[in-house]
Design brief:
alpha/beta, Rossmann fold, Helicase, Ruva Protein, domain 3, 2 domains, seven-stranded mixed β-sheet, two-stranded antiparallel ribbon, 9 helices, 17% strand, cytoplasm, EC 2.1.1.182
Length: 293
């Protein structure tokens, strides 16, 4: 069992839960499948439960650690040869400036308190090949959800707009120290190569989703009327009798494209909404990344 040093205590303000189950650790490393010559980046290495076995396979690794004490321990660990350590906040790191940019493979046991903003920060970075993250199981279920389900929401559609979402394995609380109060899961994210047109559409998609899911139990006619003038609702390319959870990603892209046109013509009412669905903490700013769930 990969226990952290006895003097090392998890810090609640950093959302730390140290992975200690050797079987789970091995399963995650196998899912990542690191190889020599690849450019690997770990976010939040903690006590190096994943760092060591990944280094053994790849020979080199860059790790980003915010906790000063943990960073100091990692920096002076004689068994972590090949480790390049960046002490700082992953949300502020320019991944495009790292060695191997364009071919980066990113992984980590993410602090639950920064999950969504960090994922979207990474999805908007150019040149990341894939990501493997330990997250709350509930968040993974929402990332991977399909239409017509209670898990399907604004976070779902935005994540699947940027990447292919593949659940990998579930992880019980007993795999951590201290034990979290929730189940966890590992997810693989494969970023999509978006066209310039789709990249430009992203803020309008976010704006459309904010309106649609602000009243997910109501019809789209009711939800979208706070964004689109009543007389223009019938020009939208969707069945207004449906609810937000009934539209697919493709449907939302078509709807957002129309919203983009209306916005450029100055015909939208406003972008503010009173979110009431389970994505209620995602920012209403149409140019902002979805925030932590």
């Amino acid at each position: 069992m990969a226990l952290p040093p006895p003097h090392l205590k998890a810090r609640k303000r950093f959302g730390q839960n140290f992975l200690i189950d050797d079987y789970i650790i091995g399963s995650i490393v196998n899912a990542i499948n690191p190889k020599p010559g690849q450019y690997l980046v770990e976010i939040g290495p903690g006590h190096a439960a994943l760092t060591r076995p990944v280094l053994e396979r790849a020979g080199a690794l860059t790790a980003i650690e915010l906790d000063r004490d943990l960073a100091d321990i990692l920096r002076h660990d004689p068994f972590l040869k090949g480790l390049t350590l960046i002490e700082g906040d992953a949300l502020k790191v320019d991944f495009a400036a790292l060695p191997g940019a364009g071919q980066l493979r990113v992984f980590g046991n993410l602090p639950y308190n920064i999950t969504s903003p960090l994922i979207f920060h990474l999805l908007e970075q150019p040149g990341i090949m894939d990501m493997h993250f330990m997250l709350q199981k509930e968040v993974v279920e929402r990332l991977a959800a399909g239409p017509h389900s209670k898990e399907y929401g604004r976070l779902t559609v935005m994540a699947q707009f940027y990447a292919e979402v593949i659940p990998v394995l579930e992880v019980p609380p007993t795999a951590f120290r201290p034990r979290p109060k929730v189940d966890s899961a590992v997810v693989r994210l494969l970023p999509k190569a978006l066209s310039p047109e789709l990249k430009a559409l992203a803020p309008y998609l976010n704006q459309t989703l904010a309106a649609a899911f602000s009243a997910r139990r109501k019809t789209l006619r009711n939800a979208l009327q706070r964004l689109v003038p009543t007389e223009l609702l019938t020009t939208l390319p969707c069945d207004l009798a449906l609810r937000a959870e009934d539209l697919s990603l493709k449907d939302y892209i078509e709807l957002a494209t129309r919203i983009q046109t209306l916005a450029q013509q100055g015909l939208l009412l406003h972008s503010g909404t009173d979110n009431q669905d389970n994505d209620s903490n995602i920012s209403n700013n149409p140019t902002a990344k979805p925030a932590e769930e």
